[in-house]
Design a protein that fits this description.
Mean pLDDT: 89
CATH architecture of the largest domain: 7 Propeller
Distance between the termini: 72 Å
CATH superfamily of the largest domain: YVTN repeat-like/Quinoprotein amine dehydrogenase
Strand order of the largest sheet: 3-30-29-28
Number of strands: 30
Helix content: 10-25%
CATH topology of the largest domain: Methylamine Dehydrogenase, Chain H
CATH class of the largest domain: Mainly Beta
Number of helices: 7
Largest sheet: 4 strands, antiparallel
Structural class: alpha+beta
Number of domains: 2
Shape: globular
Strand content: 35-45%
Length: 428
């Protein structure tokens, strides 16, 4: 095997890269990189995992009430503790000193020793968590469809929204917009300053199991229960490509270089360059010994993919998935305690207000232009459904898509804020 310029693997003997095992990859790399591969047999899963922004620390939470965090490079344990109730998700905050855990009834905050330091009672029945580092906002999605924004620097609840029950949640690092996938096949784009979604996209014909955004925020990848993984261009709001998966993708993650990792069944598949061109086969494929994959997460500044399953947590090597260089003033894996404190103060001083979270102007203009067209559901379905389908199947898809678009528009109209009598009088 040999590494190409971008850090990806190419084989010399004509073998497919996706046929390579982690054992073969570790034998052909340095001892430092091979030491990053590990598998922890824990038995309290399914497990959710998260890395700190600099990629140094990993936090894992099992649904049966088990949590642990450790230094990924030195394998030094930070904490390990159990909960009295079930846990659904976890996320580090601005650094490894605090992490949040979505438990059965509320969101809890813990320090690096695993000691509970706060309980967010406003976040009821949380299931998904995201942290916006540039705004110091902790976002949680509840089982009933409520979305909460909490400023962890001031301790105040910024806003809350009510929407249909969500299946998945992700964020766009470029603008802070939160994407939520729902059972009706739509993906909603949220900002804490608006009561309704900034935008709704019909992406699948069933529940959206997982969603992710590229680092620059221009591409969106979604996976649905219809066994489809779709790539979307948010600048044109059009479908770029579509991949069929053998099973519904339960979880996905997007790396710093635009690589996409998917987890379905007992298999983890990574795809490279899916945002720019169509791929005929996956890049790296890893099997988990008949153990269902519950979470995948790329590590920053290191070619490592974290995998959470029903019984274990694994780290595998995915060459070319991370940016090799880092800005020590933003995210430093080798920072000292003093540097960490200085960076924390610097970020607090440079914190962006929640009102600055919005879609890019080019996307907003595109949406406004399409709304002004006044398209009927049938006309929009004609534009969205690919024309290369067989006539009978396309006719069926057109009818199905038009019904879904009509339903989504009705839900959006009900969720939109009602105008006062004075505003209606001024308009007339």
């Amino acid at each position: 095997m040999e590494d190409v310029a971008q850090g990806h693997i190419e084989t010399d003997d004509g073998r497919r890269v996706c046929d390579l095992t982690q054992h073969e990859i570790s034998e052909n790399t340095s001892l430092l990189n091979s030491s990053k591969i590990f598998s922890l047999e824990l038995g309290e899963g399914p497990y959710q995992i998260d890395f700190t922004e600099n990629g140094r620390y990993i936090c894992l939470v099992g649904s049966r009430g088990h949590a642990a965090g450790f230094d990924r490079l030195t394998k030094r344990l930070l904490f390990e503790r159990g909960f009295e109730d079930e846990a659904h998700d976890t996320v580090w905050l601005h650094n490894e000193s605090i992490f949040a855990c979505a438990q059965k009834n509320f969101v809890y905050l813990y320090d690096r020793d695993g000691v509970e330091i706060h309980q967010l009672q406003e976040h009821k029945q949380p299931r998904k968590l995201q942290f916006l580092p540039h705004h110091f906002l902790l976002v949680s999605g509840s089982e009933g469809g409520a979305l909460f924004y909490h400023d962890v620097s001031t301790g105040q609840l910024v806003s809350s929204h009510k929407e249909a029950p969500l299946c998945s949640m992700a964020q766009s690092r470029s603008n802070g917009v939160v994407e939520t996938g729902h059972k009706n096949g739509t993906v909603n784009f949220w900002s804490p300053s608006t009561p309704a979604p900034l935008m709704k996209m019909l992406c699948h014909y069933g529940p959206v199991c997982s969603v992710g955004a590229s680092l620059d925020g221009t591409k969106l990848v979604t996976a649905g229960l219809d066994r489809r993984m779709r790539i979307w261009d948010l600048r044109t709001l059009g479908l770029v490509d579509e991949y069929k998966t053998g099973q519904p993708v339960r979880t996905l993650s997007v790396s710093q270089t635009g690589m996409v990792a998917t987890g379905y069944g007992d298999r983890v598949a990574t795809w490279q360059n899916v945002f720019s061109q169509r791929q005929s086969e996956p890049y790296i494929v890893h099997r988990t010994n008949k153990d269902g994959v519950s979470a995948v997460k790329f590590c920053g500044f290191d070619d490592v993919l974290g995998v959470g399953t029903g019984r274990r947590v694994e780290n595998i090597l995915v060459p070319g998935s991370a940016v090799p260089s880092f800005d020590a003033m933003e995210a430093n894996p080798f920072e000292t305690p003093k540097q960490r404190q200085e960076l924390e103060v610097k970020r607090l001083l440079e914190k962006l207000p929640a009102e600055m979270i919005r879609m890019e102007s080019v996307i907003t203009g595109k949406i406004a232009a399409e709304q002004d067209k006044g398209e009927t559901p049938e006309e929009e379905a004609e534009r969205r459904v690919p024309k290369k389908l067989a006539p009978r199947r396309r006719e069926h898809e057109l009818k199905k898509t038009a019904d879904l678009i009509r339903k989504v528009r009705q839900e959006a109209a009900r969720a939109a804020p009602k105008k006062s009598g004075l505003e209606r009088f001024r308009k007339e």
